[in-house]
Specification:
With 834 residues, the protein is α/β, with parallel strands linked by helices. It has 34 helices and 25 strands. β24, α27 and β25 form a beta-alpha-beta unit. The structure holds ligand 26Q. Ligand 26Q binds next to α7. The site of ligand 26Q has 20 residues, from α7.
């Protein structure tokens, strides 16, 4: 009977078949109104821009999710090779304007908000930064996933959903005060919780072995204390191409039975506390702080990321291929963002051996053919080491596997260099000593098919220094991938005026092929174009002043050179050298040595790790010097020094368009790459810098005549360290003597005696690894060359244009193309965006 069959057989679900959402002004007006009124329950009496921001974001998120689903299904159907970017940090910043730009709806949305009587700028500003990273390494991960989506590459970002991001920085009496950053307080409209993809993560317990039916030793990890990893997904749109990739961040939660066990034992309070311990794991982002090294909670975080992400990938593999892993390495690649997720090497072995029953050699071949490791530092003190005792207690099964990996590896080394026990000791993943430690970088190198540095010099120094033995063993494993930044956020979105002028003249191809900026070169000779360029730069400087006026009472002068150094505060980055220059200029003014003077505004911003004593002192010094200079009537508009509090992604978006001079003044050989240098260059700033990190490549691209070079080379630094005599240098240099005298007589700490003694001692120490005194003279001279050029406005503008024109190499589209061609080897997947 037709009637009956109609009632019993369920029709195929059509619940997700929807007409495509419109992208016109009226569509955004309608959707905005519905969300604002019916979802958020607000009306015209609500004055907070936050809800308007939410309503607009929900409307835009709908458009992302449509394309997201399509991308997801296309990847599944094509069964393409995939890559996964494993990172403890994704420093995403704000999402709204980036989503508008990449969907190509900026104009329609701006019109819609205008129609509604709303100020779009106000909505954009009410979004908190997603500050889930410390600095360069975290922001690089964010730029990378933008480029992967733009290049239509099937790449997923895996990270942690910290409840508290990078602390927010207040300056109180010139000192840094940290405030927790509860960025999720008002919810996050861009993420979707997916509890159905939760994974179980084991900790502690013990291991138990037996021999299986084939005579293989099998191990299980038992009596563990488990927690759950719940994924939250954020859509990552490509630039106008219909691709929307995924950033999947894990949140730790307690298991039900974990609580129940305690509860049954009659201790209710203990059970709630246990839940807390579990949820603590993803509570807070660790600041990049030597004092935080070796903390058990950090190791728990790292393991949670590695285990949850690998279980996720393997789970979906087994869903498609069953327990057949023969093609796994051909279809999957994991990029490890520094050693932070490198426990993944051992965890992949554990999953393949203990959970999926593979034998050692097969599991090891798969691991070694899927993992790739990126190093981001040359500072030996920054290399991660974990105490073997802590490891054994927290992750006993992983520790066993690492010992086994090391035993196999030591056998390989012995076979290659028979009898070379020194080398075995140097290369061992286990560092011997008073206490044994696991060297995570070595684990990462041994377990990967690719090891790269992040700029040409850095990669070369890794091969010749830190990883020399490994390079001799496996020269083919080592390669360079010079960093970049996404030109969508760092030019198109943050500097629409400059972007508009560029597009007007050379078309819009540069947005996805930044090398096309070289078409700007001939315009450096075009007077009308130069005038427009200059006006836009001056406007951006004025906007920066207006933005900062809110916080400062300093009288800025747009005609002055805007000299900017923004980055984490670290001795090797030498904010101190910058301050010495400022004190020198101040001293000249006070002495009346101001013939042919160039006005200058020096802006310095950045956070110090909470436990980094010297970095905090440097911040205090900057603020004290700033106070003295800015309130001295003799100085007037000739010189200003301002410390910009709470430097972060959204601050850089306002700062880089308005910078004339970019300070990249690290001690040569210490800055792996730098990426702020690239953002400034793209926005037409000139660089004053040492031959360090990517500065070298920036100078190569733009030409020596368009770069202000100073300082010792990496080789000279190494050479000089054996006989470094800062006091001799100071005695020989009248200017430096005067600067030191001002510092030493307490001119900048009149009511705080002794405050800067440690800073002065560091400059005068023959052991000063940063060699600040050594580069002083050369820095001052380079700054004089800066001033001479700045006084020739036409020449400066020409050089500014040429810097932007030569910045094409520093797009992450180029970087990711290199990662893909040389490491991942993925095929781009076109998403039908009709
Ligand atoms: C380590 C142990 C415990 C807690 C935190 C950490 C930790 C966290 C973050 C250690 C290092 C970092 C971040 C390092 C970083 O940002 N490095 C920078 O990476 C950039 C991208 O490659 C480079 O451009 C910079 O030169 C490099 O300093």
């Amino acid at each position: 009977m037709p009637y009956k069959s109609f009632k019993t057989s369920k029709p195929k679900s059509t619940i997700t078949i929807l007409p495509k959402l419109g992208l016109e002004e009226r569509d955004f007006v309608a959707d905005f109104k519905r969300y604002y009124s019916h979802r958020l329950g607000r009306d015209e009496n609500c004055t907070s821009p936050h809800y308007a921001y939410e309503a607009l974001s929900m409307a835009i998120s709908d458009r992302l999710i449509e394309r997201w689903k399509k991308t997801y299904n296309t990847y599944k159907e094509t069964d393409c090779k995939r890559a996964y970017y494993l990172s403890m940090e994704f420093l995403m910043g704000r999402t709204l304007s980036n989503a508008m730009l990449n969907l190509g709806i900026t104009e329609a949305v701006e019109q819609a908000m205008y129609d509604l009587g709303l100020e779009i700028e106000e909505l954009i500003e009410s979004e908190p930064d997603a500050g889930l990273g410390n600095g360069g390494l975290g922001r690089l991960a964010a730029c990378f996933i933008d480029s992967c989506a733009t290049l239509q590459l099937p790449v997923t970002g895996y990270g942690l959903r910290y409840e508290y991001g990078m602390f927010s920085q207040d300056i109180v009496n010139g000192e840094q005060v940290e405030k927790p950053d509860h960025w999720l307080r008002n919810g996050n409209v861009w993420e979707i919780e997916r509890p159905e993809y939760t994974h179980r993560i084991k900790f502690c317990g013990r291991t138990k072995s037996h021999i299986d039916e084939f005579g293989n030793k099998r191990t299980s990890w038992v009596e563990t204390q488990d927690i759950l990893a719940v994924p939250y997904d954020t859509p990552i749109p490509g630039y106008k191409n219909g691709t929307v990739n995924t950033l999947r961040l894990w949140k730790a939660t307690a298991t039900e039975e974990f609580n129940l066990q305690e509860f049954n034992a009659g201790d209710y309070a203990e059970s709630v506390a246990a839940k807390n311990t579990a949820e603590n794991i993803t509570m807070v982002l660790y600041p990049n702080d030597a004092n935080e090294n070796g903390k058990a909670l950090r190791l728990r975080q790292q393991y949670l990321l590695a285990s949850a992400s690998l279980q996720d990938v393997i789970g979906s593999w087994v869903g498609r291929h069953g327990n057949d892993f023969t093609e796994f390495a051909a279809k999957n690649a994991f990029q490890l963002n520094d050693t932070h997720p490198s426990i993944a090497v051992a965890e992949l072995m554990r999953l393949l051996l203990d959970v999926h029953g593979l034998v050692w050699n097969d599991a090891w071949a798969i691991t070694r053919n899927t993992m790739a490791y990126t190093n981001h530092t040359l500072l030996p003190e920054a290399l991660e080491r974990w105490s073997v005792n802590l490891f054994k207690q927290l992750l006993p099964r992983l520790m066993e596997i690492i010992f086994d990996i090391n035993a196999h590896f030591m056998a390989e080394v012995s076979a290659h260099w028979p009898g070379d026990t020194d080398r075995l000791g140097r290369m061992s993943i286990i560092e011997e000593g008073h206490e044994q430690h696991v060297r995570m970088a070595y684990l990462a190198i041994v377990g990967s098919f690719s090891v790269n540095g992040v700029a040409a010099l850095h990669s070369k120094l890794l091969q010749q220094g830190l990883f020399r033995d490994f390079y001799e063993f496996w020269p083919g494993k080592f390669n360079n991938k010079t960093n970049g930044v996404t030109p969508r956020r760092w030019l198109a979105a943050c500097n629409p005026e400059l972007a508009g002028l560029i597009t007007e003249n050379i078309g819009n191809g540069w947005l996805t092929d930044l090398s096309l900026l070289n078409k700007l070169k001939p315009y450096a000779k075009d007077e009308a174009f130069c005038q427009k360029w200059h006006d836009i730069k001056q406007n951006a400087k004025q906007k920066l002043i207006d933005y900062k006026k809110l916080e400062h009472d300093v009288d800025f002068n747009v005609e002055a050179i805007f000299d900017v150094q923004v980055k984490r505060v670290h001795e090797y980055k030498r904010q101190l050298l910058n301050v010495l220059h400022v004190i020198h200029l101040y001293d000249r003014i006070k002495r009346g040595d101001t013939a042919n003077w160039t006005d200058r505004c020096v802006l310095i911003g950045g956070k110090a790790a909470p436990g980094y004593y010297m970095a905090k002192k440097i911040i205090k010094l900057i603020n004290n010097v700033s106070h003295v200079i800015n309130s001295d009537p003799d100085v007037g508009k000739k010189l200003k020094l301002v410390f910009l509090p709470n430097y972060r992604v959204s601050a850089m978006e306002k700062i880089c368009p308005g910078a004339d001079l970019s300070e990249q003044i690290s001690t040569a050989g210490k800055e792996a790459s730098g990426t702020g240098n690239m953002k400034f260059m793209m926005n037409g700033a000139m660089t004053i810098g040492t031959l360090d990190g990517a500065n070298i490549e920036i100078r190569e691209e733009v030409g020596d005549e368009n770069f202000f070079l100073f300082g010792l080379t990496e080789g000279q630094v190494g050479e000089m360290s054996h006989h470094y005599d800062p006091n001799g240098i100071i005695d020989q240099d009248e200017d430096l003597q005067r600067v030191m005298r001002l510092l030493e007589c307490g001119h900048f700490n009149q009511f705080e005696p002794g405050l800067f003694d440690d800073i002065m001692a560091s400059i005068r120490s023959p052991q000063d690894p940063w060699m600040t005194a050594a580069d002083f003279r050369s820095f001052i001279d380079a700054q004089k060359r800066v001033e001479a050029v700045y006084q020739d406005r036409k020449l400066w503008t020409k050089m500014s244009i040429l810097n932007c024109a030569a910045s094409g190499k520093f797009s992450t589209d180029r970087t990711i193309t290199d990662y893909n061609n040389e490491i991942w080897k993925l095929t781009p997947v076109t998403i039908d965006d009709k």
